[in-house]
């Protein structure tokens, strides 16, 4: 491991890569603050830039910096104007916004910055310790296990979707998989489901789909409902300091939530959003009675918990990405797409074949966290000013940047029409409360899933690989449990509720 | 019927068409040597279509409660007319227009037009601020993409040549 750290240090501490971290964090923070552009959209916008850089380590370092910056930036807008631009910072606004309303915006931002820093750093240490172990296990995996593992990942995404949403999340995942089959697959050299349209020959563009699923609906929501983006920051930001008592009370919270957040982040499909909500819920439950009442009204603990957890989870989600090649969230799914475009194949061989990439990313996580803290603490008073960009300017620019993202990636104007069409579909799906992230994850994993499935089918000349390889069978069993359990529980809860109503 | 069930119905129909193609039409053109393989190009789509149809049917016929109450802070589609629907549709139409004009008119003109008109649709009237901002931003993005990143964007209408 020491050798790896040395490789990482020597790669990360070049002038270019340091600039990449700093630049990435700055870009991420500033764009992430704009409601409507979460890490997912920002990373999609940055992918063409990253690919043009050419050097995979530098590109990945840049994207990781953007990721952290965006998460931090997102919490800034949740705290200041109660407009969480990112799902994972929704829990931050529960206590952050009341604090800001009470004139303690500076303190809230400081607590958020410090908790994020600690969460991210502890996550990076855990990543360093656990990732190699996970990678050794991963080497035992063959294509049939990969297939089964991806099925587990996809079902985990459906399972964590929340009560009553399992069928919807499943449907979206399968729809994503279906969209991935459009176009010419590498395995068969046959165009499939293109309906004779030339532009579909190469399949759907993944940046186009990412933009259409996330950035465009969010922008349309901002247009439809102006109250989502009202600028009522009000008053200047003061009172930056945290008292000693507060520091003492949030320290254990940060410690617990960093570890818990990391572990949740490692699970494919859980990700930072679940980690932040769970962190908030756990801390609220174990807090003493009088502090419990403070939650939701401006508790420092309630702010520190989701912030530490979501940053640790972001780091944790790099474990399956870098060691198994499985993205745990929409954002890491986009990162995976970028990696493949850069000719890096994340997976168990990554640590063996390209250790400099692996370790440089981990080291740059430390640097990124440090940079974020150093940059943001003095910048906090100025940061808020960005949010004052009038909505009339903000929205056309968001739309323009989503279109640029899709156009630059493919250099094809038809892609923009596709973007608009898919964006409308995505907005309607969002109206009906269908989760959109599973669709994108399904789309990105789709071709890999099919390739691994086809490879195992060919090796074993049929479907019997499922029974002949115990690990595959076990993993598929887990996947089945993940899908069945939540629906079973929901059904039981529903029946119980019904029973009470009937017996009344 | 709630919107989510309508959507499930539409998806169901799409998936049935997809499944029909996978089960009945795709294998017709398969070369003989590929027919000996354990897996055909249609195998995976067949599995997917069955899965998708099952999921869509669960939503369509399930007893789950409809989403009658929109979550707080979310948009309630039943009152869609109360929101700025016109603005949203106009912006979408402008995006489509931008897609169609980008090549023939060139990046600079179409982008300035899109950003300016977009802001005006949303209610901005101070052209003396708006125009300099959009001109500056367009120039900056073009310089960044074309000159720094080296991705070709035709700056001017095609009658003026290929530019940069």
UniProtKB/TrEMBL annotation, chain A:
Record organism: Parasedimentitalea huanghaiensis
Sequence ranges assigned to domain DUF112 in this UniProt record: 18-440
PANTHER family: TRICARBOXYLIC TRANSPORT PROTEIN
Keywords: Membrane, Transmembrane, Transmembrane helix
InterPro entries hit by this protein: DUF112_TM
Protein name: Tripartite tricarboxylate transporter permease
One Pfam family per UniProt: TctA
Residue stretches spanning the membrane: 12-34, 40-68, 111-140, 146-162, 169-190, 202-224, 262-282, 326-345, 357-380, 392-409, 469-488
Automatic annotation (TrEMBL), chain B:
InterPro entries, per the entry: DUF1468 (IPR009936)
Keywords assigned by UniProt, alphabetized: Membrane, Transmembrane, Transmembrane helix
Record flagged with keyword Oxidoreductase: no
DUF1468 domain sequence ranges: 6-153
TM region positions: 7-26, 38-62, 83-99, 105-122, 129-153
Domain of life: Bacteria
Keyword presence, Transmembrane helix: yes
Protein name: Tripartite tricarboxylate transporter TctB family protein
Lineage: Bacteria, Pseudomonadati, Pseudomonadota, Alphaproteobacteria, Rhodobacterales
């Amino acid at each position: 491991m020491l050798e790896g750290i040395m490789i990482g240090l020597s790669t990360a501490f070049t002038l270019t890569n340091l600039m990449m971290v700093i630049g990435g964090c700055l870009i991420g923070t500033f764009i992430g603050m704009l409601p409507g552009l979460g890490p997912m959209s920002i990373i999609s916008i940055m992918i063409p830039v990253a690919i043009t850089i050419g050097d995979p380590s530098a590109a990945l370092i840049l994207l990781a910096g953007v990721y952290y910056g965006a998460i931090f930036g997102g919490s800034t807008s949740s705290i200041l104007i109660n407009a969480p631009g990112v799902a994972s910072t929704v829990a931050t606004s529960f206590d952050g916004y009341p604090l800001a309303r009470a004139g303690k915006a500076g303190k809230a931002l400081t607590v958020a910055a410090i908790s994020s820093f600690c969460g991210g750093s502890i996550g990076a240490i855990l990543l360093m310790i656990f990732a190699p172990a996970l990678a050794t296990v991963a080497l035992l995996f063959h294509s049939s296990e990969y297939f089964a593992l991806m099925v587990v990942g996809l079902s985990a995404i459906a399972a964590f979707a929340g009560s009553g949403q399992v069928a919807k999340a499943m449907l979206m995942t399968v729809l994503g998989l279906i969209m991935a089959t459009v176009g010419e697959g590498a395995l068969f050299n046959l165009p499939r489901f293109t309906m004779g349209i030339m532009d579909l020959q190469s399949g759907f563009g993944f940046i186009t789909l990412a933009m259409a699923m996330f950035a465009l609906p969010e922008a349309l929501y901002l247009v439809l409902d102006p109250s989502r983006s009202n600028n009522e920051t009000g008053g200047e930001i003061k009172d930056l300091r945290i008292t000693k008592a507060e520091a003492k009370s949030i320290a254990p919270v940060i410690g617990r939530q960093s570890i818990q957040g990391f572990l949740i982040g490692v699970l494919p499909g859980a990700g930072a959003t679940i980690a932040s909500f769970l962190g908030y819920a756990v801390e609220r439950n174990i807090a003493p009675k009088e502090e419990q009442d403070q939650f939701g009204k401006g508790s420092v603990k309630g702010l520190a918990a989701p912030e530490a957890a979501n940053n640790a989870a972001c780091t944790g989600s790099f474990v399956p990405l870098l060691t198994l090649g499985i993205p745990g969230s929409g954002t890491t799914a986009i990162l995976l797409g970028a990696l493949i475009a850069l000719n890096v194949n994340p997976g168990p061989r990554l640590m063996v074949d390209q250790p400099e990439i692996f370790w440089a990313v981990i080291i740059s996580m430390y640097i990124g966290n440090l940079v974020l803290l150093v940059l943001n603490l003095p910048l906090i008073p100025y940061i808020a000013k960005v949010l004052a960009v009038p909505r009339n300017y903000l929205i056309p620019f968001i739309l323009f940047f989503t279109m640029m993202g899709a156009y630059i990636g493919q250099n094809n104007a038809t892609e923009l029409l596709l973007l608009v069409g898919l964006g409308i579909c995505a907005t309607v799906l969002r109206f009906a409360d269908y989760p959109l992230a599973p669709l994108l994850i399904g789309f990105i994993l789709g071709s890999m899933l099919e390739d691994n499935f086809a490879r195992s089918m060919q090796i074993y000349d049929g479907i019997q690989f499922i029974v002949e390889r115990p690990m595959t069978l076990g993993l598929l069993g887990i996947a089945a449990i993940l899908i069945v359990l939540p629906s079973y529980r929901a059904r039981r809860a529903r029946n119980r509720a019904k029973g009470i109503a009937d017996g009344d | 019927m709630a919107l989510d069930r309508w959507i499930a119905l539409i998806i169901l129909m799409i998936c049935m068409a997809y499944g029909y193609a996978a089960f009945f039409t795709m294998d017709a053109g398969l070369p003989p040597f590929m027919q000996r393989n354990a897996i055909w190009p249609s195998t995976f789509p067949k599995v997917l279509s069955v899965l998708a149809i099952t999921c869509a049917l669960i939503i369509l016929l399930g007893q789950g409660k409809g989403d009658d109450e929109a979550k707080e802070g979310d948009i309630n589609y039943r009152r869609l007319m109360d929101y700025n629907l016109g603005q949203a549709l106009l912006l979408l139409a402008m995006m489509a227009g931008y897609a169609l004009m980008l090549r023939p008119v060139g990046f600079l003109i179409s982008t300035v037009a899109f950003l300016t008109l977009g802001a005006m649709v949303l209610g901005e009237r101070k052209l003396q601020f708006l125009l300099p901002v959009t001109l500056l931003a367009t120039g900056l993005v073009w310089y960044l993409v074309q000159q720094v990143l080296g991705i070709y964007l035709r700056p001017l209408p095609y009658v003026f040549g290929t530019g940069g």
